[in-house]
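Dear support,

Our group has been running a series of protein-ligand predictions, and this particular one with 2-acetamido-2-deoxy-beta-D-glucopyranose is the one our PI (initials K.S.) wants archived with full inputs and outputs. We had some confusion internally about which version of the output was final, so please treat the block below as the authoritative record. The input we submitted was:
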Amino acid sequence: MLLLLLVLLAVLFPGGDNQEASQGPTSYRVMQISSFANSTWTQNRGSGWLDDLQIHGWNSDTGTAIFLKPWSKGNLSDAEVTELEEIFRVYFFGFTKEVQERISDLQLEYPFEIQGVAGCELHSGGTTESFLKGAIEGLEFLSINYTCWPSPGGGSRAEKVCELVAKYKGIFDTIENLLYETCPRYLLSVLEAGKVDLQRQVKPKVWLSSGPSPRPGHLLLVCHVSGFYPKHVWVMWMRGEQVQLGTQQGDFLPNVDGTWYLRATLDVAAKEAGGLACRVKHSSLGGQDLVLYWGSSISVGLIILAVIVPCLVFLMGLALWFWRRWSYQDIE
Ligand SMILES: *[C@@H]1O[C@H](CO)[C@@H](O)[C@H](O)[C@H]1NC(C)=O
Ligand SMILES: *[C@@H]1O[C@H](CO)[C@@H](O)[C@H](O)[C@H]1NC(C)=O
Ligand SMILES: *[C@@H]1O[C@H](CO)[C@@H](O)[C@H](O)[C@H]1NC(C)=O
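Confirmed final output from the archive:
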């Protein structure tokens, strides 16, 4: 019976990027990463995500869920949580055992990794779509939506697994129930429970710097955008109203407080840097884009220098004058 659980493998897929940025997340997914190092060493990692925000972990020693947010349970009762933990405990145990027993049958060789993702997504109009996908070494090999579908690249291994799935009606029913009943119900309730956190708007801080010179006579302009939430953001180097298509975006990096960091760089000839600006659009800014001009921070430095240096010279002159006067008075 546990064979069927094999099917629950899921693969990590990037979060949907089609949702309205200010509406918060629209999907929930459970992720599994199982590493099989050799015939005696296996590790199962489990986690739960609302789009790109992790809200659940899995303690594989105790076989219990870790709730990373005070609202991570949604409106699930304690009894339901206990039941779900039991399902996952049995699943991870059975999954590991089934895979280990079928290494040659499934043409697997140590070491290898199996990934799985299963969950549901809310669409505009209130409909939900559920999904379950499995991958071996990052290559999708099957997906389930009422039926098991071997992926085009999954080969005979995928067909074999789907044939097995078809034989175990009971487990298939449990999976379907989790995907099409529990998941949408839980998703709605957790989005409601975490609303204040999930729909918060945090403004980005923006600053400019120069990176290592890409080639002689060129500058690498770096626009840092940090501390914003939600993740969706637009950052571009501009000349007037003209977007600089050479702008390169880095990866989104998470800050410890759950906000995001992103940098956008532009390689330009040093003499063309003047007049360039970094423009940032984000839902927290209420339509007021942030615009920082390259060179303006340098001219602020120059102004400070231009004011402070004469002041210092003047003060030193004054001190010298007083000191001389005192000296003359002493002599008199
Ligand atoms: C199995 O893999 C683990 C983790 O890499 C390693 O510590 C252990 O020594 C290996 N055991 C055998 C029998 O190869
Ligand atoms: C399920 O997935 C398959 C393959 O991706 C697709 O052809 C089929 O239309 C889907 N069926 C449903 C009911 O979503
Ligand atoms: C939990 O929330 C879902 C979605 O809002 C709802 O359909 C369900 O009835 C709620 N369950 C309980 C026990 O309140």
